[in-house]
Write a structure and sequence with these properties.
Chain B: This is Myotubularin phosphatase domain-containing protein. Chain B: Belongs to the protein-tyrosine phosphatase family. Non-receptor class myotubularin subfamily. The complex is a heterodimer of chains A (624) and B (754). By secondary structure, chain A is of the alpha+beta class. Chain A has helices at 3-10, 17-27, 43-50, 53-57, 156-164, 192-198, 233-242, 278-289, 305-313, 337-351, 360-367, 369-388, 404-416, 423-436, 441-446, 460-474, 483-495, 506-511, 514-517, 521-526, 558-561, 574-605; strands at 68-79, 83-92, 95-100, 107-112, 116-123, 129-136, 141-147, 206-209, 225-228, 250-254, 261-265, 297-303, 327-334, 393-397. In chain A, β6 (129-136) and β7 (141-147) form a beta hairpin. Chain A is globular. Chain B is an alpha+beta fold and 754 residues long. The longest helix of chain B has 26 residues, at 654-679. The radius of gyration of chain B is 27 Å and the shape is globular. Chain B starts with 21 loop residues before the first helix and ends with a helix. Classes of the chains: A alpha+beta (624), B alpha+beta (754).
């Protein structure tokens, strides 16, 4: 089904259509497909449906492979913005679907169970009634009240917990069952060798290595890595032994002119006794030598220096400038995953459901969310500046090298290389710096896991996408993708509809045969690129774009964090006005062509020798 | 021709990159002088500082001071970035710098220099703190010491004239007046920008009544030649039911004679009226009743009138002034990094955004009474010439698409500010004599309009650059528009000046040029920056079946009041109105006052706004803003444009604007062609001579690949050269990214000076 058709059905007409589209994409999935195969309807449900007209009208659209697990009528959704609404609540393997035809247009709530973090049942004050409080990962909480009935199998609460936390219940994630076919194969988006070739690799200093093809050197790294040509495999093993989890320094990006490189790794295992590893020292020296432009190597340790000292006492640590000659160590003072989780929790309190108008700014300030965004961006700008202006190679690490390191390298690459600002390039960037280098998506998001208090959860990837959004705000014409693209990525970070973000590492993904068992998010996105294209895009090729890492320009991403609040919707998105202008131009162009034809016909019929006007209007731009 | 007029404030890159020779500099400088402008002092071998840790990037040139401006003329081209212009930057109009700061670094002397003060040491450096947040530094190491001292004193003297008639506009007007005697046809200038309705003539008001359909209202001439009051405009509009004699009787009962004056009429019948409070006394109630009755009678079918006491609803003028002072201090604070950490809280503490929100909210609520409830609204305050100006004009921008065009907006400012007697002289403190009365209400209004523009980017004919430039123009003493406290004062001062100077002009007085004559400031090309490319979609014409059909929607069917009927008044809150409506009055329902509205009102308001937002929007109808704090933003172009650290290089809204501009230009070209075909179907070649209204054009862009490089968040302004600021902590970035900002070696901070 075309997304446009859908918007006609579900969005009010007029200027808010665009926004509603976004919101629908945000509430997800119905946009993807809405036809339900009759086989998917369980018997229980069919009996129920046949007996109830209202329930029919309020029935949930299903994906191929999706089955209804529970239905409850006369459920009240307690909306914090428009009050209590009565309707039908449906639970499927994939989503929670609430629809009420009480309102015009009908009110629907369509929430993938993947976003659920916690479900609490609240015993009713009245007999037989009970309440549900559902805490979501995407900045909202849902409240339902309903009468308890005796449909054993169709009990809402049990089914919700079952399918919201399939991993804890030893059930497969819905992505394994989702069988939608897309014209574009998203799993082909990233080809490591092709990407390195695009960067001009291999060259005389760097080689595309297959030493990790069985994930034996490092089980959280990709099978293909780029390492200095001259380093022998034996030495690589020694370096791996000296770095946390064997995450040796490998190349992420190379400057096309200066050959300055960005390499990433985990912390060295220096320990309290200042252990040294001459292979590691030599390895970094080799990285420095590979860049003839500079006789220095800058090591960016993303952590706070105090924290780095603490990990040194526990066996980790950082490169001492005495052991690594010509290396300069800079701490970027970025806080750890726990601080970020806490910050987002505070932010949710500030934005949902009620906003304190009088203290809006200071409340945001007190969450430090934007401050952490600033520190992150400032770090990326510093790294990019070293590479671009000082032509110096850099090494980036934190402790494990899969959270802050991924944030920093990917942001730096976005600043330096316009390729990553295209839709395809950005997908490659995520596949490469995040997925292949083992950002632990399963653990950080907690897919299908009921342990909502898990200390390993943290919104690291969300923070990265927020930084990207900040950059798109500062450079509105420099990115090929639009806000909807970023919103969609974040929604499917949690939805568990696509296989892309399900697992922790490439190795795990191979084991689970993700590419054969699930659909890639990029299949969906790349099948309808128009939806995700920024109409203002101009290719800033060869432009290094430094965002201003200052609170004067950083903004709270209202369209993400506060999007459930209907009062926060933008009045008239500017890109919509632009599209209207494009329509007007197309119409005028047609008219001019028609007139031109008329004129030339006239000229022919009157046998005049006058040439028909051929002066062409400025070239048609193809973006729509 | 227009475009050849001298432009003294171009922010844009010069057409030629090569700078003129010394002789040419002189010639250019002379050419750039306006009629009546004289070079008062000149110092050569002055260095304009770019970076503070090195003089390597300094520009060498001549510093000029005229009776109008400071100019720095240089042969050097800034090495930093293409598209930055030193000449334009250092040219600032007089009356801007409130602080001059000569420094002698050998003797470690410094002084804040005012007019008529002595300067005992020989300055090696001059730092100028401009009112528009700019800071400019000159060094005199290589210039003649005496001449350096002299120019400092001259600048101090001319930047703060003590008498109104010493403002440059008068000198200019004298020159124009004297020259026009000899000229055969000397009227071109004054007519240029003046399609703007000035509301100084009877006919302007009459037209406005007809335009809005206010048939129950009439223009009155009781104050012709200021016969009745020097505070009122010569012509204004009153209820038809009030005769001139009634008015003369009523005038003395109002503070400052400011009786109810009509502002605007909604097609459904409701009107907006502004007035001062009635003087306390035995006749208060009687006069009040009379006024309300008359206004109610001018409504075709409603007997209610809604009265809003602005003094009780909004912050007063000194609170607004204090908020701006806090904002200014925050924006230009040296400690960029330190303030950045707590920026949001600090910004909130200035309360500027809170006030913006309050004014918008109050205007939106009143606007809603008018068009949704169809009830006439009276706004009143003690004097009737401050908050009234702001609220009346914001409401009209929301309600009437005409005021969202450039000419309409300008006429609105004439109507509700200039002619209505906003005390520009006192509030802007042009003579620097009394800070007590200073208040930035006009900026507050522009900021509110900017907020609306942010929320409805396609609803305005103008851009934010237009608003910023208008704000800058507030302090250029060349123009008469924003110099006076009332139209009477302008008339009187001009006559006085003409009489004393023995000038024989047409009419009895000299005319200072209006600010609306934009060609006095800008070239035709620069002026295209005022045109909002998104707006053209709203007025675009399209040829259908051989007739040219306008896309513009008819005003009458564009808003449908029935949609908003959910908002109903509750009787419970309409109490305590006996002051306004005696019970024996035929008016059944007393008028509600917003001040007395309770919670249910808020709930209703909320519901009403929710309904509003869920409906399709007509940009050529009424626009109501989101009123949440999250939607009230800092107007960065205006407040942060001179801060190098806050500049987004290669980015900012301009990069999207540029693409929209090119598309709009395409559309206009196509429209021209269609029209051309209709005029002359056999036309063989297509003339390219018509004027482009967009700043960026498709053909330019393909020719100049480097266009992107001069974009920044400050565009079309450039903070390059606005220095004397502390550098960014610990990073070498400033060298490469931030246009060379470096530490100002002085220990004094600007905050202390302020």
């Amino acid at each position: 089904m075309e997304p446009d058709d859908f918007s006609c059905l579900y969005s009010p007409p007029g200027s808010h259509v665009e926004w509603c589209k976004q919101l629908i994409a945000a509430t997800i999935s119905t946009q993807l497909s809405t036809t339900a195969a009759p086989d998917n309807v369980s018997k229980d449900y069919r009996v129920l449906r046949d007996g109830n007209k209202l329930a029919q009208m309020e029935e949930a659209p299903l994906f191929p492979g999706e089955a209804i697990k529970a239905i409850a009528k006369d459920v009240t959704y307690i909306c914090p913005f428009i009050g209590a609404i009565s309707g039908t609540l449906t639970v499927t393997e994939y989503k929670l679907y609430f629809k009420s035809v009480e309102r015009d247009p009908p009110f629907t709530l369509d929430v993938p169970l993947g976003v659920v973090s916690r479900i609490e049942k609240i015993a009713g004050i009245q007999e037989n009634s009970c309440g549900l409080e559902i805490v979501c990962k995407d900045m909202r909480n849902l409240r339902f009240a309903y009468k308890q009935e005796e449909h054993g199998k169709l009990e809402i609460f049990e089914n919700l917990t079952q399918y919201a936390f399939p991993v804890s219940k030893n059930l497969p994630l819905f992505a394994m069952k989702y069988k939608e076919k897309y014209p574009v194969q998203g799993w082909k988006v990233y080809d490591a060798v092709a990407e390195y070739k695009r960067q001009g690799l291999p060259n005389e200093s760097w080689v595309i290595s297959k030493t990790n093809s069985n994930y034996e050197l490092c089980d959280t790294y990709p099978s293909i890595v780029v390492v200095p040509t001259s380093v022998k495999d034996d030495d690589l093993c020694k370096v791996a032994a000296f770095r946390t989890r064997g995450r040796i320094p490998v190349l992420s990006w190379i400057h096309p002119e200066s050959q300055a490189t960005i390499t990433r790794c985990s912390q060295p295992l220096v320990g309290p006794n200042d252990k040294r590893c001459k292979e590691d020292e030599k390895y970094l020296q080799t990285i420095m030598d590979a860049n003839a432009q500079s006789h220095k190597l800058i090591i960016f340790d993303a952590r706070q220096s105090s924290v780095a000292d603490a990990s040194k006492a526990k066996g980790g640590g950082y490169e001492s400038e005495s052991a690594y000659s010509n290396a300069e160590l800079i701490f970027l003072e970025i806080h750890n995953i726990h601080v970020m989780r806490e910050s987002l929790r505070k932010l949710k309190d500030v934005v949902y459901p009620v906003i304190d108008e009088a203290k809006w700014l200071s409340n945001i300030d007190s969450t430090h969310w934007l401050e952490y965004i600033r520190i992150l961006l400032a770090g990326a700008v510093r790294i990019a500046d070293k590479v671009e202006s000082a032509k110096t190679s850099v090494v980036v690490h934190c402790s494990d090298g899969w959270d802050r390191t991924s944030q920093l390298t990917s942001l730096t690459m976005l600043i330096l290389d316009s390729y990553y600002r295209t839709i395809k390039g950005f997908e490659v960037l995520i596949e490469k710096e995040w997925l292949s280098f083992g950002h632990r998506f399963a653990v950080r998001v907690g897919h299908g896991d009921e342990n909502h208090a898990d200390a390993d959860r943290s919104p690291i990837f969300l923070q990265f996408i927020d930084c990207v959004w900040q950059m798109t705000k500062q450079f509105p014409a420099a990115f090929e993708f639009n806000e909807l693209f970023l919103l969609t990525i974040l929604d499917h970070l949690y939805s568990c509809l696509f296989g892309t973000f399900l697992y922790n590492s490439e190795q795990q993904r191979m084991k689970e045969e993700v590419q054969t068992n699930t659909v890639s998010l990029w299949s969906y996105i790349n099948s309808q690129l128009e939806e995700f294209t920024n109409p203002f895009y101009v290719n800033y090729e060869n432009h290094v774009l430094y965002p201003v890492a200052s609170l004067r320009h950083l903004e709270l991403w209202v369209n993400y964090y506060v999007r459930w609040n209907p009062r926060m919707r933008p009045q008239v998105p500017i890109h919509q006005s632009y599209k209207e202008l494009l329509g007007i131009r197309a119409e005028l162009q047609k008219k001019v062509e028609e007139l031109q034809r008329e004129v030339s016909n006239m000229a022919v019929s009157s046998s005049s020798e006058r040439a028909s006007p051929t002066h062409s209007v400025s070239p048609v731009q193809t973006t729509v | 021709m227009k475009s050849s007029r001298p432009s003294f404030r171009s922010y844009l890159p010069p057409a030629e990159s090569s700078f003129p020779s010394r002789a040419e500099v002189n010639r250019v400088c002379e050419a750039a002088l306006l009629p009546g402008e004289l070079v008062v002092s000149e110092t050569s071998n002055v260095r304009k500082c770019i970076a503070t840790d090195t003089s390597a990037h300094d520009l060498s040139g001549t510093l000029l001071c005229t009776n109008f401006k400071i100019s720095f003329i240089t042969k050097d081209v800034t090495p930093f970035r293409r598209g930055s212009v030193e000449l334009a930057l250092t040219t600032c109009a007089f009356n801007i710098p409130p602080f001059l700061h000569p420094v002698n670094d050998e003797r470690k002397k410094r002084k804040v220099l005012g007019p008529n003060q002595r300067l005992k040491f020989k300055p090696t450096e001059l730092i100028i703190y401009c009112k528009d947040f700019r800071i400019i530094r000159f060094r005199f190491d290589e210039s003649v010491p005496e001449s350096a001292r002299k120019i400092c004193l001259v600048i101090a003297h001319y930047s703060q004239p003590k008498d109104l008639q010493l403002l440059f506009g008068f000198a200019y007007a004298r020159e124009k007046c004297q020259n026009s005697v000899n000229k055969v046809n000397g009227t071109d200038l004054e007519l240029d920008g003046l399609q703007t309705s000035l509301f100084k003539a009877y006919s302007d008001w009459d037209r406005e009544i007809k335009r809005t359909g206010a048939s129950e209202w009439r223009v009155c001439s009781v104050n012709e030649h200021y016969a009745t009051s020097t505070s009122l405009p010569e012509y204004f509009v009153v209820p038809s039911s009030l005769a001139d004699e009634d008015l003369k009787q009523l005038v003395p009962s109002f503070n400052g004679d400011r009786i109810p004056m009509w502002c605007w009429h909604h097609w459904t019948g409701s009107s907006l009226v502004r007035m001062a409070n009635i003087k306390p006394g035995p006749k208060l109630r009687k006069h009040n009743t009379r006024i309300l009755k008359a206004i109610a009678q001018s409504h075709p079918d409603k007997s209610e009138v809604f009265k809003s006491d602005l003094d009780k609803s909004l912050p007063n003028i000194s609170e607004v002034q204090a908020a701006l002072m806090r904002l200014k201090q925050l924006c230009i604070n040296d400690l960029f990094e330190e303030t950045d950490e707590k920026w949001l809280s600090l910004l909130e503490n200035t309360r500027w955004l809170e006030y913006i929100r309050l004014f918008l909210k109050h205007s939106a609520e009143l606007a809603q009474w008018m068009y949704s409830e169809n009830i006439s609204v009276i706004i009143h305050e003690e004097e009737g010439r401050d908050l009234n100006c702001v609220i009346a004009s914001i409401m009209q921008v929301m309600l009437d698409p005409h005021f969202r065009t450039i000419l309409g907006f300008q006429s609105l400012i004439q109507k509700e500010w200039v002619v209505a007697g906003y005390r520009f002289l006192d509030r802007c403190n042009h003579l620097g004599d009394s800070e007590k009365h200073e208040s930035p209400l006009f900026l507050l209004f522009l900021d509110c309009v900017w907020q609306l523009l942010q929320q409805f980017p396609a609803a305005f004919e103008f851009t934010e650059t237009y608003l910023t430039v208008l704000y800058d123009s507030l302090r250029i003493p060349l123009f008469g528009t924003f110099l006076f406290n009332s139209p009477y004062q302008q008339m009187q001062q001009s006559q006085d000046f003409a009489t004393n100077g023995n000038l024989h002009c047409e009419g009895k007085s000299v005319e200072l040029p209006p600010v609306w004559d934009w060609f006095l400031q800008f070239t035709a090309k620069d002026l295209t920056l005022f045109n909002n490319p998104l707006y053209i979609g709203k007025s675009v014409t399209c040829v259908q079946n051989g007739t040219i059909k306008s896309f513009k929607r008819a005003k009458k069917n564009s808003s449908s009041s029935s949609i908003y009927s959910v908002y109903t008044m509750k009787n419970g809150k309409l109490s305590d109105q006996h002051d306004f409506f005696p019970r024996r009055n035929s008016l059944q329902r007393p008028s509600p006052d917003l001040m007395q509205l309770n919670e249910s009102h808020d709930r209703n308001m909320e519901r009403y706004f929710r309904d509003w937002y869920s409906k399709p929007l007509d940009l050529h109808g009424i626009i109501l803003p989101h009123l949440s704090s999250a939607h009230t933003q800092l107007w960065k172009q205006c407040y942060l444009r001179w801060i190098p650290e806050a500049q987004i290089t290669n980015g900012g809204f301009i990069s999207a604007f540029h693409k929209i501009s090119i598309l709009a230009d395409d559309i206009e070209t196509l429209q021209q062609r269609v029209r051309q075909y209709w005029c002359d179907p056999c036309l063989t070649s297509f003339p390219d001579s018509y004027s482009h209204r967009m700043y960026f054009q498709a053909k330019d862009f393909s020719e100049v690949p480097g266009t992107l490089d001069c974009f920044s968040s400050s565009f079309p302004f450039s903070p390059v050269g606005n220095l004397c600021r502390r550098s960014i902590l610990g990073t070498p970035l400033s060298k490469f990214l931030l246009t060379g900002a470096k530490t100002w070696p002085s220990t004094e901070t600007l905050a202390n000076d302020e």
